[in-house]
Amino acid sequence: MTATVLSGRRVVVGVSGSIAAYKAVSLARLLCERGAVVDVAMTPSATRFVGPLTFASLTHRPVVTDVLELDADQQIEHIELAEAADAIVLAPATANLLGELAAGLVGNAVTAIACASRAPVVVAPAMDAGMWTHPATQRNVATLREFGYIVIDPEVGELASGLTGIGRLAEPAAIVDAVERLFVRTGSLEGLSVVVSAGGTREPLDPVRFIGNRSSGKMGAAIAESARDRGASVTLVAGAMSVAPPRGVTVVEATTAQLMREAIIRAAPDADILVMAAAVADFAPARASQRKIKRSGDNLQVELVPNPDIVAEVGEMPDDVRPFLIGFAAESDDLEANAAAKLRDKGLDLIVGNVVGGPFDAIGSDENKVTVFGAEGPLTDWPMLPKRQVAERLWDLIGDRYRRRRTEGDGGPARTKGRRRS
Ligand code: PMT
Asked: Is 280 a pocket residue for ligand 1 (Cβ < 6 Å)?
């Protein structure tokens, strides 16, 4: 089989109870033909339109119909699939399914998988025209779009009722195209060398204690993974992370600010683009005790000294070695003013602002709501999105700006450094 962008991708097809469920059979077949590993989940009502056996025979994989089902290894099936999925396609999606998804109701295998997964979701609704145009359905669709779901509007045509109107499921080929577009990125990073930092630093107080922060590394890992998928050669400079680094990237462990500085300063001259998503401690204990500090009953005074500002140091590198430079600003207040100041003071090309420490906290969360700032001010107005989707949008923007900088030759990096190391 010829390799396609879907080769080896895990795609979950969620089928709900509509007469259009029969078209999901063609959809599953087309996805299999393009090399995807297809798992089908069905709502109970979908099984009344098409038998699970049809999908199982086509995909050669078990079909999930029960939200309480366990697999052969006694794992909860819908959670396993949610975690393994590279993409989820809900087709056909009934008005009822849209309402459940928008409300976060997870009473069947399809909604449970969509809710539990962080993979991108494509939704192809199918229903009667009156249901589609009803304000409740339109509100639910708007909510799903805010979640970052890609909604393929239904088509106009003859409906099951015999009437003609809007509500017919989009053609399976069009749905497959939308799934493929998730993986084909216009902002290709082929041939570029990208360095991403992620996670928090830990500044030792003694052999067992440190001053650190709650950064999980999820944001930086998503950025590194997305760059990998766009063809970049990626180095992940990893602080303390609670998630595994993505496969296929070079990992350099750097759990203190000093170690991270060494790793970044070493890697930066060979990098085309550096994204500093790590939460680097601004201060470290002046001295780390060689022995475990004993409890004495007295107050303990710890002298803290400033750590090097790593990204600012890279910002001052000569133009011929300085990579295109993106910093993050983690702020609890005055995001725009603080981000603008950091952009300027640290000599960055772009800065990604996000909010920490409030009712929504970017740290540790699976989602993030970011605003990207350039010298001219805010550049984006994106909704709250899964971090992987934030990463995709960031690379669309960064790739675009980077290429523009190179073609305009306005003092930024003038060549691709990506293959220098090989
Ligand atoms: O890891 P997660 O749980 O997914 O959370 C993600 C995140 C909130 C940590 C991430 O999105 C984020 O905002 N990272 C930057 C955190 C931070 O240190 O922000 P800052 O505003 O203090 O620093 C500004 C920039 O300077 C950052 O790019 C930082 O990496 C860099 N910096 C900071 C201090 C220092 N000594 N050297 C630096 O290079």
From this structure: yes
Q: Does residue 419 or residue 50 have the better pLDDT? A: 50
Catalytic residue among 96, 108, 213, 354: 213
Mean pLDDT, to the nearest integer, of 99-107? 96
Q: Is the dihedral of CA 161, 163, 167, 173 positive or negative?
A: positive
Distance 142 CA to ligand 1 centre (A): 32
Q: HSE, CB side, 13 Å, CA atoms: give it for residue 220.
A: 35
What's the gap in Å between 347 CA and the centre of ligand 1?
15
Please say whether the beta carbons of 161 and 128 come within 8 A. yes
Residue 315 Cα to ligand 1 midpoint, Å, equals 15
Query: Which tokens in the block code for residue 169?
Result: 């499921």
In the chain the domains, ranked by start, together with CATH numbers, are 10-182 (3.40.50.1950), 193-420 (3.40.50.10300)
Identify whether 92 is preceded by a cis peptide bond (ω within 30 of 0).
yes
CA-to-CA distance for 13 and 122, rounded, in angstroms?
A: 10
Give the span between the Cα atoms of 363 and 302, in whole angstroms: 26
Res. 414: pLDDT tops 70: no
Q: Give the residue among 205, 245, 202 at the shortest CA–CA distance from 225.
A: 245
Burial of 23 (0-12, 13-18, 19+ CB in 10 A): buried
Question: Do residues 5 and 81 lie in contact, with contact meaning Cβ atoms separated by under 8 Å?
Answer: no
Report yes or no on whether pTM surpasses 0.90. Answer: no
Amino acid at position 132, single letter: W
Q: Is the CB of 177 under 6 A from ligand 1?
A: no
Q: What is the mean pLDDT of residues 155-179?
A: 89
Element (H, E) at 224: helix 218-229
